[in-house]
Write a structure and sequence with these properties.
It is a single chain. It is built from ten helices and seven strands. By secondary structure, it is of the alpha/beta class. Helix 1 packs across helix 4. The termini are far apart.
């Protein structure tokens, strides 16, 4: 198999290194190549993988000319196959999105070949590439693409943002982030073994309202919205764990979830 990758950023170079390591022939084409170069990007290969930022996928796909049976793919998590243009132009098309962060080509290629999950759709070659990388393909229906990508961002981006808050709050107490990272790793391990509800601990989970109030009083006011949001999510999970039906997450437990007041914002009664 031969694959042409359009895009020489972190994703493109990570895929290049990972696929080359499986014995697949790979050529890398910079995403900012001329229209003439992109027009023949699918020539002489089995698949061309568009690995450029989401906002450029449609424009790049529109420049790639149809070439025999070559499949045109993208590796965006949020975009559907319609981003590749009309099916009349690229009848064989698909997508392959890794559930992994690709911070640089070395780490990225290791993660791509580390048994990761790949969201695939469209042509069978997307699944074949995921399997060639030793990954676990999962099919995401087009109408579920936005939900899938939202979950991926929560699992990765939001988690990192939460640890940024940990760093700030810990720094106010004169403590380093490194002291709390093993705690976060342990919590993730617990989720893997027990599921989120089984892994949940802490004052919001057990209804320890005085401790929640003490936390809010101690942290900088600029951090309270983020903290309150975490308590809402923990309270919702605790309610689900205890078999309660929660139509409105903000009302899962009036005694433990923040409610607005006319003076002072959220509080716990």
């Amino acid at each position: 198999m031969k694959v042409h990758i359009v895009g020489a950023g972190r994703a493109g170079r990570s895929f290049e290194a990972a696929l080359s390591g499986t014995g697949i022939a790979v050529d890398l084409i910079p995403g900012r190549s001329s229209a003439d170069v992109l027009s023949v990007a699918a020539r002489g290969c089995d698949a061309v993988l568009i690995a450029v930022p989401d906002r450029y996928v449609a424009g790049v796909a529109a420049l790639i000319g149809p070439e025999g049976s070559a499949v045109v793919l993208h590796c965006s998590g949020s975009l559907g196959l319609d981003a590749l243009g009309p099916a009349e132009i690229h009848p064989r098309r698909g997508s392959i999105h890794p559930l992994a962060t690709l911070p640089d080509p070395v780490i990225g290629s290791l993660r791509l070949r580390g048994g990761t999950f790949f969201a695939v759709s469209g042509d069978q070659i997307a699944t074949d590439l995921a399997l060639a990388l030793g990954g676990q393909p999962i099919v995401v229906a087009p109408e579920q693409r936005a939900r899938y990508h939202a979950a991926a961002c929560i699992a990765s981006n939001h988690l990192v943002a939460l640890l940024g808050q940990v760093q700030r709050v810990a720094a106010e107490a004169g403590l380093p982030l490194e002291a709390f990272v093993p705690l976060a790793r342990g919590a993730l391990d617990d989720v893997t073994m027990l599921g989120p509800a089984g892994a949940l601990t802490g004052p919001a989970a057990r209804g320890d309202h005085p401790t929640l109030e003490a936390h809010r009083a101690a942290i900088d006011p600029s951090e309270r919205d983020g903290y309150d949001a975490g308590v809402v999510l923990a309270s919702r999970l605790a309610a689900e764990r205890d078999g309660l039906t929660v139509a409105d997450p903000s009302a899962a437990d009036a005694s433990s979830v923040p409610s607005s007041t006319s003076a002072g914002g959220p509080h716990w009664s």
